[in-house]
C-alpha cells in the first residue's frame, strides 16, 4: 500500500505534456501554466511543455525566472530528477539549454501564442519580443534530445530550436555555416555575451564579437581531420556541417562559457551538472590565452593582471577599471581624441607581450614603420609586431581596433616568433606644450639626480651586504627567520625545537629532503618535527605557504604512522583488514576532493603516495607533505610547472611537461589504490623495475583482474568482488588525461552512486604511455626525476 501511495504521489507530480496543437496560447502566470517548479538555486520555471520518464520530467519548455529579478525568459531546460520530501522543490538547479529572448526578458502576464502562421512571444503591453513565421504549422513538440520543433501536417519540421543555437550545443545537433553558438553574459543573465563559435571556411572558429571579430581558436581546421574526439563524445564533420555525437549514457552538452572557454558537461545521474572536459585545453595552453582573462587593455602574466603602465614602466596613462578587481581590465586616463594632431599620440612599448589575435596587414616591415601607420589611423588602438630570429627590421604588423587582454610571452611557449606590443596613448595637451620649454631643466636635474642616485646606490649596497652577513649568522644560530610565516600558526625558536625534540634524538623517518624526529610539547602533546636538508629548501618554501609553519616544521603526531608501513610490510606483522583498506581508500579520495574542489584557491598536491598518507589511531586518513603542492585559481583548468613528484606515481602528462591539472593527483591516487589492494609497490628499484601497473594491464586484458589481489590477506578472500571493483576504479584513474575522471566522480564511483562504463582498450595502462605522442615516453627519461620520499610517522 505504501509503495502504491508513493507511486501515486510521484505520478501526480508530473504527467507528460510534450506537444500542443494550434491554436493555443499560454499566459505567464502561476494559475494558467501547466506546472510551477522551483529549484535549489532560487530559480523557477512555469512549464508549457514537458517530457520525461518514470514520473519525473527530463526536459521542459516554459517561462524561466532566474531568481534575481521579476522577469522571465522563454527557455528549454534539462530538469534534475532529485526533489525534496514534499516533491515541491528540486534539490539541484536546472540547465538552460536554449533561450528565445535572452536579450529581451518579459514580465508577468506575457503571452506565448501558437497559430498556423507563427509562434510569437508578446510582453504584457503587447510588444512582440520574439517570433518565428511558421506557415502551415499544425502543432509544437518537445523531444527527448532537447529539441523544440514546429510540425507540418505531414509531420515535417517547419522550424526547430536546433536551427538557432544559443550558448549550448546538444548531441545530435548539427552546426551549419549560417549558425553560431553565442556565450551568455553569465549563468543567470541569458543575454548574448562577448564570444561566439561558428563555421568558417570548413573549420570551427572561436571569436570575440568585436568590430571586426577577433579569432582566438580553431577546431577541425585540418581538412582531412573529420572528427574531434573528447572521450564521451565527438564533433564529426560531413560536408559543410559538423554534428555533435554522444557516446555516454549520461546526458552531455557543450557550453560556450561567458569567459570564452568551451566546456563539455555531463548531467550525472540525471540530476547534477559536472565539468568533464575543456575542449580548448590543448590549444589555449594557459589561462592568459583567453581574450578577456584580464579585461580590456589588461596584461596577463602567469594569471596575474596589470595595466600597461606597470608592464612598460610608465605611469599616469591607465588605471584599473575596478580598483578591487584587477581582472576587470584597465581604462585610459586620457581618452584618445581623433581630432588631435598625431603629435599628441604616442605609445607604451611592451616588450615580449603578445596578443591572442593577429591579422597581418603588412609584412617585411620594421616596428617604427608599423607605429607610424597606426598613428595615422585613429581607429588603431595598438600595434602588435611579430618578428623572427631577433631581426626587428623584418616583421609583420597587426593593428587591432578593439584591444582586449594582452599576454606576456614565456620562454617555454616555444613560439616560432618574438612579439612586442605598442599600446596607443593620448598625451595631455599641457604636458605636450611644456615639454620643449622644460627639456633643459629636465636634463640638468637628471644629471644631478644621477649623481645622488649613484651615491645612494653605493650606500645601499654596503648596507644590504652587512645585513646579509648578519642574517646568515642569525639563521645559523636559530635566532631569526627570513621567511614570511602566516600569523595564524605558532612559531617556535630553534632552541625551543631542540628542547621539544630532545636534541633530535628519536628519529621517526628519513628521506631525500630531510628527517622527522619525535617531540613533546610542554602540555604533553606529542608532535613530529621535520628538519629539511639544504637541498630541500625549494620544497620547504611551498610547504610553508601551503600549510603554514616555521623553518623546522612541526606536525601533529599520528601514532599509526604512514600508510606504506602497513601495506608494504613484508613480515606480515601489520596487515590491514579489507574494511580498513576500503576506509583508507575512500578517505584519501575525499581528502583529494576537498583539496581540488573545496579549497579556494584549489591545491594540487603533486606527490600522492603511501608515504605521504598518515593514519591516526582509528586509521582515519590525513594527507601530508605539501612541499611540492601548488595553488591554482578556481577558473584555471591547467598550469605550467616543472617535472616533480615521485617515480612510479607521476601522470604521463606531468612527465611530458604539458596539460598539467588537478588530474595528476587522480592518476597518483589510482596507483595508490593498486598498491593498497595488491599489497606491493608499483615500482621497486631493487626488483628490476617491475611495475604493478603493467601486470594489472596484462590481467585486465585477459579478464583475470582477481589474480592481482593480495592472496596473503585471509579476510580479503571473502571481499574479492569489492577488491576487484577498487582495481577497476583505479584503472579509470589511470586513463588518459582527457577522459580521466575528476575526484568528485571518483568518490561517487567508490560510494556506488554512479556506475562504471566498460573499458575495451587497456593500452593506456603503461608506466611510459604518452597519449599526446606517437612514441612512448622513454624509460631513461622518466628516471631523471625528482624523488620526494619522506615517510614515517609524523
From TrEMBL:
<dbReference type="InterPro" id="IPR011009">
    <property type="entry name" value="Kinase-like_dom_sf"/>
</dbReference>
<dbReference type="InterPro" id="IPR000719">
    <property type="entry name" value="Prot_kinase_dom"/>
</dbReference>
<keyword id="KW-0812">Transmembrane</keyword>
<dbReference type="InterPro" id="IPR051343">
    <property type="entry name" value="G-type_lectin_kinases/EP1-like"/>
</dbReference>
<comment type="similarity">
    <text>Belongs to the protein kinase superfamily. Ser/Thr protein kinase family.</text>
</comment>
<keyword id="KW-1133">Transmembrane helix</keyword>
<dbReference type="InterPro" id="IPR017441">
    <property type="entry name" value="Protein_kinase_ATP_BS"/>
</dbReference>
<keyword id="KW-0808">Transferase</keyword>
<keyword id="KW-0418">Kinase</keyword>
<keyword id="KW-0723">Serine/threonine-protein kinase</keyword>
<dbReference type="Pfam" id="PF08276">
    <property type="entry name" value="PAN_2"/>
</dbReference>
<dbReference type="InterPro" id="IPR024171">
    <property type="entry name" value="SRK-like_kinase"/>
</dbReference>
<keyword id="KW-0472">Membrane</keyword>
<feature type="signal peptide">
    <location>
        <begin position="1"/>
        <end position="24"/>
    </location>
</feature>
<keyword id="KW-0325">Glycoprotein</keyword>
<keyword id="KW-0732">Signal</keyword>
<protein>
    <recommendedName>
        <fullName>Receptor-like serine/threonine-protein kinase</fullName>
        <ecNumber>2.7.11.1</ecNumber>
    </recommendedName>
</protein>
<dbReference type="Pfam" id="PF00954">
    <property type="entry name" value="S_locus_glycop"/>
</dbReference>
<feature type="domain" description="Bulb-type lectin">
    <location>
        <begin position="40"/>
        <end position="163"/>
    </location>
</feature>
<feature type="domain" description="Apple">
    <location>
        <begin position="338"/>
        <end position="422"/>
    </location>
</feature>
<dbReference type="InterPro" id="IPR000858">
    <property type="entry name" value="S_locus_glycoprot_dom"/>
</dbReference>
<keyword id="KW-0547">Nucleotide-binding</keyword>
<keyword id="KW-0245">EGF-like domain</keyword>
<keyword id="KW-1015">Disulfide bond</keyword>
<dbReference type="Pfam" id="PF00069">
    <property type="entry name" value="Pkinase"/>
</dbReference>
<dbReference type="InterPro" id="IPR001480">
    <property type="entry name" value="Bulb-type_lectin_dom"/>
</dbReference>
<feature type="transmembrane region" description="Helical">
    <location>
        <begin position="440"/>
        <end position="464"/>
    </location>
</feature>
<dbReference type="Pfam" id="PF01453">
    <property type="entry name" value="B_lectin"/>
</dbReference>
<keyword id="KW-0067">ATP-binding</keyword>
<keyword id="KW-0675">Receptor</keyword>
<feature type="binding site">
    <location>
        <position position="530"/>
    </location>
    <ligand>
        <name>ATP</name>
    </ligand>
</feature>
<dbReference type="InterPro" id="IPR003609">
    <property type="entry name" value="Pan_app"/>
</dbReference>
<dbReference type="InterPro" id="IPR036426">
    <property type="entry name" value="Bulb-type_lectin_dom_sf"/>
</dbReference>
<feature type="domain" description="Protein kinase">
    <location>
        <begin position="502"/>
        <end position="743"/>
    </location>
</feature>
<dbReference type="InterPro" id="IPR008271">
    <property type="entry name" value="Ser/Thr_kinase_AS"/>
</dbReference>
